[in-house]
């Protein structure tokens, strides 16, 4: 009895192994035939997240509640010190507002002078993050809210402090966002202080890197990188990251002849912690009015020039 | 006698590892904020997959596993077939240990599981090198494998409690 049972078991296992081999073959066939960016696969993914997002959201509720409670008590401990810091920041920000108001008036006058079209204001859509598809292979998130809320592929996505990625697909009730750290993310940026342009590319590591950076580029520690708006998909001027320089690397690279500000290896520090995103703001794209083919100056303007 | 025996017949809880596997696949991407170092792929689904490999004898098992692998590909933004292949490979590796793990202690299970997970992650690394679509960060991948091995007892013990029922049919 036992023997026959063992014999039977072996036969069945062999059969299961054969079926497994066929499954393996089919899997490799899929890998060979269907590329990752195939539109049909992307549609299937979006449908999957549309269907599973309510379940994922409900399942994540206890974990989020636990995290929020932990943050609440952590913040209570530091509330007094934070209050002092915030008061100081408030005073500084009030000064900045008056400076910005003046700059805005000046910019409007310059625009009028150059007859430039008005840039549309940014319209933002708030969305909760419901899934976090981060692994050694991909860095994406899924947000609640899709086409019904006006979210479309290509739109820029902002965190609390700056750009964090862009929408790669949107379904009826969810949208997939490719984070800046993903290997497939490439965003044109410009350094605010030196006007140096480059492409910010993800590396699947926490810090992205700058590509196509001019050799003579003079990036300094603390330089702010903003979107350049090249390509027209992402509005210009959205803050993205800070440049940090590792001075030790700079000393060894340059033979120890300096090590001052701006001599080290360039590293990029994103403005937001992409592992702790709960809410994001999606920048609703708007059509920008095309500039006139040739700037027509009035006689008064010519005289002023 | 092995702690995990044939479970597909006679027992009412044979589906528990499958249910766990499905849950881990579907809920892999939950946003909780508890694990901020989320570049790690914890890969908890390998634990029920290991148990399925050791216990299941149904011919449909590899098909179910491959389908769940495909679902994991969809939910993890991977090329279709990547996790399906890894799941089936891991299942085959686990099934090959069935006779070796008879009459062994927990430490042997843990050690075997660790070796199989490391092997599977190494295969994933090799596949990522070959495929143009997949780009990986090597250190997080290695850390993921270590984290998965470390987390094994967390999933193992609840299943260990079910062991009597899982192997009940064969013992009786």
Explained architecture:
The complex is a heterodimer of chains A (305) and B (172). Chain A folds into two domains: 37-118, no CATH class; 121-286, Beta Barrel (Thrombin, subunit H), CATH 2.40.10.340. Helices cover 40% and strands 24% of the residues of chain A. Chain A contains four helices and twelve strands, in the order ααββββββββββαββα. In chain A, the strands form two sheets. Chain A has a six-stranded antiparallel barrel with strand order 1-2-5-4-3-12. A six-stranded antiparallel β-sheet of chain A has the order 8-7-6-9-10-11. In chain A, β6 and β7 (197-201) form a beta hairpin. Chain B has one domain. By secondary structure, chain B is an all-alpha fold. The two termini of chain B are 13 Å apart. Chains A and B meet through α1, α2, β1 and β2 of A and α3, α4 and α6 of B.
Output the keywords.
heterodimer, A: about 300 residues, Thrombin, subunit H, 12 strands, globular, B: about 170 residues, mainly alpha, about 65% helix, disordered N terminus, disordered C terminus
In short:
Chain A has helices at about 1-35, 40-115, 245-255, 300-305; strands at about 125-135, 140-145, 155-160, 165-170, 175-180, 185-190, 195-200, 210, 225, 240-245, 265-270, 280-285. Chain A is of the alpha+beta class. Chain A has a six-stranded antiparallel β-barrel with strand order 1-2-5-4-3-12.
- β-strand amount of chain B: under 5%
Radius of gyration of chain A: 26 Å
What is the rounded distance between the termini of chain A? 105 Å
Q: What is the count of distinct domains of chain B?
A: 1
The outline of chain B comes out as globular
Show unreliable segments of chain B: 1-10, 168-172
According to CATH, the homologous superfamily of the largest domain in chain A is: Rod shape-determining protein MreC, domain 1
The profile of the biggest β sheet of chain A is:
6 strands, antiparallel, barrel
> How confident is the prediction overall: mean pLDDT of chain B?
80
Task: Give the largest interface pair and sizes.
Answer: A-B, 60 and 56 residues
Strands of chain A, total number? 12
Give the SSE order of chain A as H and E letters: HHEEEEEEEEEEHEEH
SS-based structural class of chain B? mainly alpha
């Amino acid at each position: 009895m036992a023997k026959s049972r063992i014999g039977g078991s072996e036969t069945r296992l062999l059969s299961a192994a054969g079926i497994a081999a066929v499954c393996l073959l089919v899997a490799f066939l899929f890998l060979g035939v269907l590329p990752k960016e195939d539109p049909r696969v992307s549609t299937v993914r979006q449908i999957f997240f549309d269907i599973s997002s309510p379940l994922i959201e409900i399942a994540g509720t206890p974990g989020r509640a636990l995290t929020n409670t932990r943050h609440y008590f952590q913040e209570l401990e530091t509330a007094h010190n934070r209050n002092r810091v915030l008061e100081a920041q408030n005073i500084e920000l009030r000064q900045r507002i008056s400076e910005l108001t003046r700059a805005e008036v000046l910019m409007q006058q310059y625009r009028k002078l150059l007859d430039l079209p008005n840039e549309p204001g940014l319209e933002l859509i708030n969305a909760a993050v419901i899934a976090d598809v981060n692994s050694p292979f991909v860095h994406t998130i899924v947000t609640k809210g899709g086409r019904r809320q006006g979210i479309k592929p290509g739109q820029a996505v902002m965190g609390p402090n700056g750009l964090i990625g862009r929408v790669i697909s949107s379904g009826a009730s969810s949208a997939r966002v490719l984070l800046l750290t993903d290997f497939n993310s490439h965003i044109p940026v410009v350094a605010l202080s030196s006007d140096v342009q480059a492409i910010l590319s993800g590396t699947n590591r926490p810090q992205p890197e700058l590509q196509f950076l001019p050799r003579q580029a003079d990036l300094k520690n603390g330089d702010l990188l903003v979107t350049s708006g090249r390509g027209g998909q992402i509005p210009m001027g959205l803050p993205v990251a800070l440049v940090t320089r590792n001075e030790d690397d700079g000393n060894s690279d340059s033979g120890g002849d300096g090590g001052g500000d701006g001599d080290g290896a360039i590293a990029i520090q994103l403005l937001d912690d992409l592992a702790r995103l709960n809410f994001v703001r999606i920048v609703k794209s708007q059509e920008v009015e095309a500039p006139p083919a040739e700037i027509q100056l009035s006689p008064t303007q010519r005289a002023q020039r | 006698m092995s702690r995990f025996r044939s479970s597909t017949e006679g027992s009412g809880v044979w589906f528990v590892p499958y249910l766990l596997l499905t849950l881990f696949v579907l809920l892999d991407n939950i946003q909780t904020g508890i694990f901020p170092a989320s570049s790690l792929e914890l890969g908890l689904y390998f634990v029920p997959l290991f148990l399925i490999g050791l216990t299941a004898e149904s011919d449909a098992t590899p098909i179910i596993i491959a389908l769940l692998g495909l679902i994991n590909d969809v939910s993890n933004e991977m090329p279709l077939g990547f996790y399906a292949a890894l799941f089936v490979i891991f299942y085959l590796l686990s099934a090959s240990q069935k006779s070796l793990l008879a009459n062994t202690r927990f430490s042997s299970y843990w050690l075997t599981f660790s070796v199989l997970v490391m092997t599977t992650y190494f295969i994933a690394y090799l596949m990522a090198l070959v495929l143009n679509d997949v780009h990986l960060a090597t250190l997080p991948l290695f850390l993921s494998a270590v984290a998965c091995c470390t987390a094994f007892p967390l999933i193992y013990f609840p299943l260990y409690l079910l062991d009597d029922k899982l192997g009940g049919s064969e013992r009786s």
